[in-house]
Write a structure and sequence with these properties.
mainly alpha, Endonuclease III, domain 1, about 55% helix
Length: about 190
């Protein structure tokens, strides 16, 4: 039996395949999941995504399963201790950004009701579907990711440059960038929003 055709960036690592097949590009509107992905995308900056995926379970453990209110209350000593934990990416700026982003995330929730309403308002709650055939066609950032990153910076978020935000939009299904020959492309076209 022939293997499924996947996006060309997806390696043969089972963790990567599972993430690609079940999560990437799927519409996500749960604030806890949206917070998790925002933090993980920032943690990935300058590294490979597989590095983050392999540490994801430990991130969930040490960051209270990405409960935004619990992360916002983490103390400096708690964060300092995490800098010694090999189960996460031990970059001081990224670790402390997790708490800073939690505080900013809560402020967005206060203003919009949910972070989901905020992020999905940029596309009127309708995913953008691209029709890229090859990985080289997919942009690293767009005018939309530029606009969102700029607004998030004004709202005191950090590690949210335009490239990180575009990867985030792809991950949470705001943008469907599955390659057109990928078996996930069609299912991601027909998602309920």
């Amino acid at each position: 039996m022939q293997d499924k055709i996947r996006c060309s960036w997806c390696s043969d690592d089972p963790i990567y395949i599972d993430y690609h097949d079940k999560e990437w590009g799927r519409v996500e509107k749960n604030d806890q999941q949206l917070f998790e992905m925002l933090i993980l995308e920032g943690a990935q900056a300058g590294l490979s995504w597989i590095t983050v995926l392999k540490k994801r379970q430990h991130y969930r453990k040490v960051f209270h399963n990405f409960n935004v209110r619990k992360v916002a209350k983490m103390t400096d000593p708690e964060l300092e201790l995490l800098l010694k934990d090999p189960g996460i990416i031990r970059n001081r700026l990224k670790v402390f950004a997790t708490r800073k982003n939690a505080l900013a995330f809560i402020e967005v929730q206060k203003e919009f009701g949910t972070f989901s309403k905020y992020i999905w308002s940029y596309v009127d709650a309708v995913p953008i579907t691209n029709q890229f055939k090859a990985l080289k066609e997919i942009p690293a950032n767009t005018a939309l990711s530029d606009r969102i990153a700029k607004d998030l910076k004004k709202r005191n978020f950090t590690f949210i440059g335009s490239t990180i935000i575009y990867a985030y939009l792809q991950a949470i299904g705001v943008v469907n960038d599955h390659q057109t020959d990928c078996f996930c492309y069609e299912p991601c076209l027909n998602q309920n929003t």
